[in-house]
Design goal:
This protein has helices at about 10-35, 45-70, 75-95, 105-110, 115-125, 135-160. It is mainly α.
């Protein structure tokens, strides 16, 4: 790859686009499976909002994965970092324990993870009794916060890195 006739930036964009395609395919499969299990819920505004939130979170996971892949070069290191990031953010963000049971300090730290905003968005969507824009606004704010994380991780991943190019 280092000897390819395209710029490192273009190569990174192509790698990320490939990650996005894979992410969208997986999201579509998971969404189709979810809808197939409960067909009458597929027209519900709740379901549509849950699927939107899941899509944004999936894209965020792809961005984090791309960022980690650019930083960590060894396979063993990559597996370790991915486990720590995925499980660590899940534990402190309310995936395994409801957010209302977590302490203020833990939630304060968790706010700096996209997982926190995904869980918060799901909690807000689940409590919606009506779907006026002002009631859905907090859920959209949670999705926008995830989009901000996507941008931050993409910008971080696209920063040029110094590396030795060895071409034969």
């Amino acid at each position: 790859n280092a000897c390819a006739p395209i710029s490192p930036f273009a190569m990174n964009v192509q790698f990320f686009l490939a990650s996005l395609v894979f992410t969208l395919i997986v999201w579509l499969i998971m969404s189709a499976g979810s809808i197939a299990m409960d067909r009458k819920a597929c027209n519900s505004p709740h379901t549509i909002l849950f699927l939107m939130n899941a899509l944004v979170f999936s894209l965020g996971c792809a961005a984090i994965g791309f960022f980690i892949g650019r930083l960590v070069k060894s396979q063993d290191g990559l597996a370790a970092v991915c486990n720590v990031v995925a499980l660590g953010s899940s534990f402190i963000s309310g995936v395994f324990v409801p957010q209302w049971l977590l302490g203020k300090t833990v939630l304060g730290i968790a706010r700096f993870t996209p997982t926190y905003w995904y869980v918060k968005g799901n909690d807000i969507i689940a409590r919606l009794a009506s779907f006026e824009v002002f009631r859905m606004k907090p859920a959209f704010v949670a999705m926008v916060m995830q989009l901000v994380f996507i941008l931050v991780f993409l910008i971080g991943a696209m920063v040029p890195r110094r590396s030795k190019k060895v071409c034969a």
